[in-house]
């Protein structure tokens, strides 16, 4: 056990004491200063040594346990967890022909990928937007700062450093209209850059259909890599080595899985040794209903191989058209040059208003409120679907995010046909098979953001009726 006198002092002026304790322990583990199985100080002893409340240390330890760094059992000491690395080079077949994109219904009930825009804080946003529109300075209105105004870069970085554990400088934050624009920028400078792995992208399977389409448009050779309950399993990928690896580690789209720590560390080491860039799309990970959000992959990246993507489309509204990328230092100049050429710029008054909105706590307050709203809607949706559709569907746990995955108990079901049958009754579900590039497990994907708790039961009953009268029932 590490003596408590060896622990670093806590900077009280910096605030977030729990986060400081969490990062001190995490970094010791990641840097090899604490070995697997090593016993940690008791929460009481460490709290006394650091002059913090015991509850602060308890919360930090709980966070580290949730993310896989520590393990403990009732009545036993807390110890450093072991991180077995998966063996690379097992098998998944590279498909030479990829399926064409499926047309998805929009505007119906349970539509995935859309937030509740009726909950948008219209009055507050109008005040910030109006104030900034009247007070923009002359130098704000020129062609400078293609990557975004510094105020917004700093505000975003302050937020994601605290809530997602991201580590960067403001210069690494690039403001773009959408995450799709960010993926386009990164593929434009990375896929065909005279690299030994030119043109090859590894992507989660199942995965985000928009990312599939963007990489396909860029001419990438896509290698689907299976995902399971621990996230992407690079040990099951065979084919050309990648230049890009696209992942959604904190809340995998569409399954909702969280990538385990051992998989995260293996992915980072693999990317570092192969010269690949990992695109971490932090898709709707701000919304967690049973625990605090898992820290971003970027925050434990010591090789600068991760480009981190975030958006305000799910947390505020798609119509704002504001997203961001936190890119490795060596890519900043190339990304900004590509951005100038492609015109992927967010209007300056929107940027300035959003910076104020974040810095004055309005964004954080909106997130807290919507987390409660969406938690209630997710719980109601899970309960209703289990009650009415449990004979056909195995419904996910729904512990976070705005989408809910389900799988048909009968794996011979044609989920595209089932989707069409259900959607004909006013729904906008998606077939899980349409989100696969490799072998697919049939299922349906639900969006819960606009499904009020009071309407979930009736909606699920309608879905059950549609399934009962379709070919799914045989």
TrEMBL record:
Keyword set includes Transferase: yes
SUPFAM superfamilies with a match to the protein in the record: PLP-dependent transferases (SSF53383), Winged helix' DNA-binding domain (SSF46785)
Keywords on record: Aminotransferase, DNA-binding, Pyridoxal phosphate, Transcription, Transcription regulation, Transferase
Residue ranges annotated for the HTH gntR-type domain, each copy included: 15-83
InterPro entries: Aminotransferase_I/II_large (IPR004839), HTH_trans_reg/aminotransferase (IPR051446), PyrdxlP-dep_Trfase (IPR015424), PyrdxlP-dep_Trfase_major (IPR015421), Tscrpt_reg_HTH_GntR (IPR000524), WH-like_DNA-bd_sf (IPR036388), WH_DNA-bd_sf (IPR036390)
Superkingdom field: Bacteria
Keyword Transcription regulation: yes
GO molecular function: DNA binding; DNA-binding transcription factor activity; pyridoxal phosphate binding; transaminase activity
PANTHER family, A to Z: HTH-TYPE TRANSCRIPTIONAL REGULATORY PROTEIN GABR (PTHR46577:SF1)
Family: In the C-terminal section; belongs to the class-I pyridoxal-phosphate-dependent aminotransferase family.
UniProt protein name: GntR family transcriptional regulator/MocR family aminotransferase
Native organism taxonomy: Bacteria, Pseudomonadati, Pseudomonadota, Alphaproteobacteria, Hyphomicrobiales
């Amino acid at each position: 056990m590490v003596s408590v006198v060896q622990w670093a002092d806590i900077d009280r002026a910096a605030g977030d004491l729990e986060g400081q304790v969490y990062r001190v322990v995490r970094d010791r583990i990641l840097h090899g200063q604490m070995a697997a199985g090593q016993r940690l100080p008791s929460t009481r002893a460490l709290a006394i040594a650091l002059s913090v409340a015991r509850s602060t240390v308890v919360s930090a330890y709980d966070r580290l346990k949730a993310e896989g760094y520590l393990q403990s059992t009732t009545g036993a000491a807390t110890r450093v967890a072991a991180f077995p690395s998966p063996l690379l080079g097992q098998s998944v077949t590279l498909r030479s022909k990829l399926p064409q994109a499926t047309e998805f219904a929009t505007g119906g009930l349970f539509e995935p990928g859309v937030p509740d825009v009726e909950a948008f804080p219209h009055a507050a946003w109008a005040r910030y937007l109006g104030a900034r529109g009247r007070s923009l300075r002359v130098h704000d209105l020129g062609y400078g700062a293609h990557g975004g105004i510094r105020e917004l870069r700093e505000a975003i970085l302050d937020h994601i450093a605290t809530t997602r554990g991201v580590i960067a400088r403001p210069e690494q934050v690039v403001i773009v209209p959408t995450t799709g624009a960010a993926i386009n920028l990164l593929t434009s400078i990375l896929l065909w850059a005279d690299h030994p792995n030119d043109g090859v992208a590894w992507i989660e399977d199942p995965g985000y259909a928009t990312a599939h389409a963007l990489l396909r448009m860029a001419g990438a050779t896509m290698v689907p890599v299976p995902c399971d309950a621990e996230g992407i399993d690079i040990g099951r990928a065979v084919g050309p080595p990648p230049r890009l690896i696209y992942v959604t580690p904190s809340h995998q789209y569409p399954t909702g899985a969280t990538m385990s720590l051992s998989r995260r560390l293996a992915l980072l080491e693999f990317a570092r040794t192969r010269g690949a860039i990992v695109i971490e799309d932090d898709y709707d990970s701000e919304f967690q209903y049973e625990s605090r959000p898992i820290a971003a992959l970027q925050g434990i990246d010591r090789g600068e191989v991760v480009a981190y993507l975030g958006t305000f489309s799910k947390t505020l509204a798609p119509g704002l058209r504001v997203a961001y990328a936190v890119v490795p230092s060596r890519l900043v100049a190339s990304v900004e040059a590509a951005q100038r050429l492609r015109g992927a710029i967010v209007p300056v008054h929107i940027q300035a208003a959003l910076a104020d909105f974040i810095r004055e706590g309005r964004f954080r307050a909106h997130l807290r409120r919507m987390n409660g709203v969406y938690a209630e809607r997710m719980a109601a949706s899970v309960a209703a679907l289990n009650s009415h559709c449990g004979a056909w569907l195995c419904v996910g746990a729904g512990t976070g995010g705005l989408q809910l995955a389900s799988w048909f108990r009968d794996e011979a079901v044609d989920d595209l046909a089932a989707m069409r049958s259900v959607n004909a009754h006013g729904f906008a579900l998606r077939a899980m098979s349409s989100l696969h590039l490799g072998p697919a497990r049939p299922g349906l994907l639900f969006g819960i953001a606009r499904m009020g708790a009071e309407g979930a039961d009736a909606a699920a009953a309608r879905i059950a009726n549609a399934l009962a009268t379709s070919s799914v029932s045989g």
